[in-house]
Design goal:
There is one protein chain. The chain is of the alpha+beta class. About 30% of the residues lie in helices and about 30% in strands. The chain is built from 18 helices and 31 strands. An eight-stranded antiparallel β-sheet has the order 11-10-23-22-21-20-19-18, with helices on both faces. β30 (about 630-635) and β31 form a beta hairpin. α6 (about 240-250) packs across α12, α10 (about 310-315) packs across α11 and α11 (about 330-345) packs across α12. The chain starts with 13 loop residues before the first helix and ends with a strand. The relative contact order is 0.12.
Amino acid sequence: MKFLTAIALMTLPAAALAQSVAADTPGKTQSGVQFVQPKDWTAARSGQAVTFTAPEGDLRISVIDIGAASDGKDAAAKAWVAVRGAAGPEPRLTTPVPAGDGWDERLSLAYEVAPTERAVRSALALRKGTAWTVLIVDGGAGTAAKRSAAMSVVQAGLKPAGFQAESFAGKTAHELTPERIKLLTDFVEKARQTLEVPGIGFALIDDGKVLWQGGFGVRALGSPEKVDQNTKFMVASNTKGMTTLLLSVLADEGKLDWNQKVVDLYPQFRLGNDEVTQSVLVKHLVCACTGLPRKDYAFILADKGQPASDTFAQLAATMPTSKFGDLFQYNNQLASAAGYVAGYVLHPKMEFGAGYDRAMEEKIFKPLGMKDATFDYAEGMAGNWAAPHGLDIDGKVTLMSNDFNWSPYPYRPAGAAFATTADMIRYVQLELGKGVLDGKRVVSEANLTERRKKGVQVGPDSWYGMGLFQTNAKGVNVVTHGGTLLGYHSNWYALPESGVGMVILTNSDPGAALLAPTLRRLLEILYDGQPEAERDVAAAAARIKAGAAARRGRLTYPGDPAVLGNLAGHYSDPAVGQIAISEKNGAKWIKAGFVEGPIATRKNADGTISIISVGPGNIGVDALVGVKDGKRTLTINDGQQNQYVYVED
């Protein structure tokens, strides 16, 4: 998520501004700009700026009413002076954002942050008429990750005076006639070309019937083989909803209960300490509400071949950073444990992974007719499958190996399934059918829809249930989930009131920018919405190119010889794994867990040096070069609250 926006001076009394609020609270600035103060954050005013401070005290969102400025960059510079009393940092990247939400112009600004700071720093300048408003985000990266929902509330709540958002609430959706279907498929193909996505699997249903399913583009660059509805993609975290569907089936069968203690099903389960362990119910494994921070690097940087039981070992060493039900924190290991506990309930004598695989085949894939869905990588990568693609160091879309995407395999209930568009649309049909598919009940409506109930807040109009998001999109209820791996980005959407469903599977990192605009285009077609989707795709393509160019400009590649020559050949962190530095094809090469590639160097804002893996794809290693107790070190921060320090052997 991106959290760049603006506000201005509040009309609340000064005394109120020094207080926190018990719920998200709307208000207006002196100029009438609409805002929302997030729950539990304090607010205070100083001159032109109103500053919201997170409960942790190390993250601030400042809203500054600027008035006239020569442009967005000038407005942001004035905002920093208002906040700091002195000139602010120079922006590293400025990117136009399409006008919208009542604003005539929007400009996103990113700033250089040294790795040692472990901070976030950004701004968004917004213009209505001749007046600018600027939002500055500045503070701890770990808190920003933890408080992402509140930050989203602030951003989305900022609107010009008198603005009323577009709403489709209460409107009847148009029938998806062949003409309207063509409008949508034409959009998908044009967006694919604009974003340079090699291949897309796409399907559309209405009133329980599949209206269109097939593909666009090719399975791999340089190959003539086309994507169709039977092309296999990795669907990543879309696996979570299928895992919670397995729990629903077991609840129907009386083998578990959502409110049952996990230790009653699997006595060896541990989380943090005994008190926390005893508090964890089945529903907590899949609600993203237990306060466990994201720890993806724990398996990205791990050595290959970890057993499925590592899920439980990692959880036993993890404590929540917030109260149950308080904040949205997305933890893959917990979702993984949910699947393995379900498999254990059905097949207690089998290895965790094998038991889960069999349970999913017996209870989900086979009953739903998901003929090609599998966790077997050899099967998934054989025959009609779409290979992953990512941007190389120069921003060019490039075919990649699928080696990195073995990283979630030991934790596969959270995100390692292969499936086709034809498979996924069957799954969406079941969701819209409230548990009935092809006239046969697969799961009870009660336990299927239990997964959709609004749980912890994700944003101003979005909530997480149990492996599913529920979003209010301009007054339309949307049940959804997405999936992200290296070179794979996908989503599915179910609109229960209209009976419309959609699946989008892509085989490249830029494909992520196609997902939200496609939902937007569907809503435009169904409800005569304002045309915004094509504009959003064009802006995303420009943003991707600008971001790639800015990243390239900061890197020295091949890396600085003096830095590369002083690296050790081998480093280790006993809690995570190994880093090996070697020579390959005449270049320095890094291998850290599942990340592998040539090395670039970067001089940071504070004068420190980092090495960066520059293989294609949007996931890599960014390691700070250092020394500890006379030994060379490489330090990796994961953007959350976790730091991994590798010391030379």
